[in-house]
Amino acid sequence: MKFKKFRSGGEDIRVVSTDGHMGYLTNEFTSLPDVLWADAYSKGAIAEDMNVGGLDEFILSKKLEKEEEDRKEKEDIKEILKTVFASPIGYLDSKNNLVARKVVGLIGKPVKKEVIEAIWEEIVAESEG
Known about the structure:
Layout: E1 3-7, E2 13-16, E3 22-25, E4 30-33, H1 37-42, E5 46-47, H2 53-86, H3 100-107, H4 113-128
Antiparallel strand pairs: 1-4, 1-5, 2-3
């Protein structure tokens, strides 16, 4: 029989095998026989040989990817709105406010009105500067 140390990732975990072995995991590492490893892993236990820091790195990389994706999307929308700013006929209402639903049609995918208005204000401010 092989042994490996496991701990819980937060709350305590009770692990059992089909042949009656049982273990209880807390935040401290506890040695478990190999017959309990599958149940421990399936319940989210952390083994001593796991790279837990890798999870933090993975989460950070996904956040950075999302930020880059959002930045790129904002740039794309801004380029479209710059063309509208250059020739606004049909995209402004009678009070010279941007008609968001028409711009969304031009963008070709759903975008929140608040996002469109914020980027539009940015373009207007840049043109006045």
